[in-house]
């Protein structure tokens, strides 16, 4: 159950998990909720009616009731990328604080102190977005840079161009940008191209989540990569162990260390 199949991280995780499970003759059904809780609940109920053995979920945000039902029915379940408070479920995700900290530290090392961050909405309390913002703020503080509210924008994808325009109309403009994920990065790159701003001379850019075009974009893009293969294989391992009744211990949260991929945009 994928929250948004457009994310490069999501599609890569699906590929890794599907390959690992199919080697064990486990068939994988893929559903996309488009970050819509109602659609997600509909899909989950349909899957439960088909008596699936396990659920792997990139959760939305407001379906705690249906998640709890899955747990109470003792169906094996693993969450990816997002923590759902109050539920004891195996959860695989990035160390998001470290990811944002790596981005800030790299920019500061490059001489940048006017560092802005753009993310998708945080009103739904989606954990990686909030954690990356927290890591961004904490890292600025550790580097002796005051946090400026004008340099943080969170909004729907279709509003990011407006947010970027307003930020670059400020008297003091940012000279470095951190994209909270791959979809946000595309919006930033589009804006800078239209505005004829040069990377990294006019503004440095780092994206959290690696992208397939990072090496071939001009200039090549510095990213903070998730170890998707390790994460995907861990999901498959948990599923197999739970299904074979090898794994009896209480569910846990497994955080994976991000990697800075230094290229030319920062």
Concise summary:
This protein has 266 residues and is an alpha/beta fold. It is 39% helix and 16% strand. The protein starts with 7 loop residues before the first helix and ends in a 5-residue tail after the last strand.
Describe the protein in words.
Helix 1 (8-22) crosses helix 8 and helix 6 (160-167) packs across helix 7. The chain is elongated, with a radius of gyration of 19 Å. Strand 4 (115-119), helix 5 (127-142) and strand 5 (152-154) form a beta-alpha-beta unit. The strands form two sheets. The protein has a six-stranded mixed beta sheet, with helices on both faces. It has a four-stranded parallel beta sheet with strand order 1-2-3-9, covered by helices on one side. 38% of the residues are buried. The chain has two domains: 8-94 and 227-258, Rossmann fold; 96-225, Response regulator (Rossmann fold). It is built from eight helices and ten strands. The chain has helices at 8-22, 37-49, 64-72, 96-109, 127-142, 160-167, 182-194, 228-243; strands at residues 54-57, 76-80, 90-94, 115-119, 152-154, 176-179, 204-208, 222-225, 253-256, 259-261.
